[in-house]
Amino acid sequence: MTTNFTTNLPVATSDLSSLREILLDLLVSKAYKEGEFVLSSGQQSSYYINGKKVTLTAEGALAVGRLLLSMLPEDTQAVAGLTLGADPIVSAVSVVSAYENRPIPALIIRKEAKGHGTKAYIEGPDLAPESKVVVLEDVVTTGKSAMQAVERLRDAGLKVDLIIALVDREQGGAEFYQSVGLQFQTLFSIRDLQQRYRKSWV
């Protein structure tokens, strides 16, 4: 087994190109596992990516926040995602945006309406109607998970045209988003992770 030392570079001060390599190493070393798994979509898989193993670490959150913030359109007024995988991601982007003097609020979309109080699906600050929101996701398979967030946001009168993910498993998500008129960007494909895994951790 070989070891990659990219993650020893400073996450706070590395340029975005180096930061992307750092995040790739973190995902491969901490989040990517091979074996027999059943995904949330019900599909069988020979590998699994648990993004929270990275997005809930200090260095992973900062790397995700810096990289995804750099991908947001200039007119983005909020970031949002479906609980639970997207929670640390939207929070990281929002915190980093404040440090960059570009404050962008975060919204968390419940899978079911809150059972008390306002019984809301969306948690976070109130936005004006037609505010432009970008949906963030950790791992995209079929695309249906993030689509739930898109639908909730649109039902609330917000505008959503773009989904950005950390990893695309390339199992139909991109094609699904295209079929419903959504733009889709991703930091990494599953091929990126598997190539790095074979090169550095096997």
TrEMBL record:
Family annotation (Pfam families): UPRTase
A GO BP entry: pyrimidine nucleobase biosynthetic process
Job of this protein: Catalyzes the transfer of a ribosyl phosphate group from 5-phosphoribose 1-diphosphate to orotate, leading to the formation of orotidine monophosphate (OMP).
Pathway listed: Pyrimidine metabolism; UMP biosynthesis via de novo pathway; UMP from orotate: step 1/2
Keywords assigned by UniProt, alphabetized: Glycosyltransferase, Magnesium, Pyrimidine biosynthesis, Transferase
Protein family (similarity comment): Belongs to the purine/pyrimidine phosphoribosyltransferase family. PyrE subfamily.
Reaction(s) catalysed (UniProt annotation): orotidine 5'-phosphate + diphosphate = orotate + 5-phospho-alpha-D-ribose 1-diphosphate
MF term (GO), any: orotate phosphoribosyltransferase activity
Signal peptide as annotated in the record: none
UniProt name for this protein: Orotate phosphoribosyltransferase
Gene: pyrE
Keyword Phosphoprotein belongs to the record: no
UniProt-annotated binding residues for 5-phospho-alpha-D-ribose 1-diphosphate: 110-111, 114, 116, 137-145
